[in-house]
What does this fold into?
Amino acid sequence: MNELNHSPLIIDVAVTELNDADRRRLANPLVGGVIHFARNWQDRAQMTALNAEIKAIRPDLLICVDHEGGRVQRFRTDGFTRLPSMRSLGELWMRDAMRATKAATAAGQVLAAELRACGVDFSFAPVLDLDHGGSSVIGDRSFHRDPRVVALLAKSVMHGMLQMGMRNCGKHFPGHGFVNADSHVEIPVDRRGLKTILADDAQPYDWLAGTLTAVMPAHVIYPKVDRRPAGFSSRWLGDILRNRLAFDGAIFSDDLSMEAGRYIDGELLSYTDAALAALDAGCDLAMLCNQSIGDGRPLDELLDGFGVAARAGRWQPNARSEARRRALLPGEPSTDWNALVDSAGYERARQALVQAELTTPHNA
It folds into this structure.
């Protein structure tokens, strides 16, 4: 077995600086990336230094963050723009569609440019879930109830991100917005049929299949389609997303530490077995978050478990999945912060958000 052919695991680090355990795990060829959280942030200088050290260990590691705007924005201080919620862009669309499109592109530009200036490669954005009105976990993270509005505003955000050298990730396939339960703490069940879901919540994935570079499936069970949650379902990921919708980018599992992230067929799996099940179903990358805190034993068990699984023939590297992971890495070096804030394009994007009354000037 040559593990270097595939680095399928996305993990986290504990605090604002790497410790010896972090360095050892990040050097493991099974690890393909790291996801940051608010606890990893102190200021721009610290984040830039942290990411430089990560890249010094492995230049190919994908440095990720959940940084969507609104209430899901990990870095908010030391010059970072307070990005609008996606719902606010949808509300602007109802008043002035073209102005909303311009603001959505600007939001993507600012989001990506600021992250990249601190050494972050990739954000899990935008959310493509529809706002059905009852989901507390989605809520104002959604652009709109209408899949057409969601697709068009998401495409504008994605275009802005790409202009600043960052790929995108649509989530949570095929749609998390219809169910009220929060998959962080329980297992949501959506009892609609496949035809209904494809004609509504999954429509943005169909329309954007050629534009999306990554997709994250929902920790939701759709029992009329498959008894397994979408992220563990070869029917959802292979038959529908890959074949029917012709998506060929990277598929990330959602966080396997979530309450719904390890229940398959009524059984609570180990982190290793859950990651293996996600990859076997069609995910290219399996993500385990918030397990570096404390002794980090779950991460070490995951890495050790993959070695055991490989020797037993339960897991084999996948060169195509590895190519999809590497395609998410930026193609060009990022602009440093000082050069960014002096650039006309960045200032125009920020002013577009200010003029749309979606953020405030830096000096406000």
Q: What stands out?
A: The radius of gyration is 19 Å. The domain at 8-355 is CATH 3.20.20.300 (TIM Barrel). The chain has a mean pLDDT of 94.
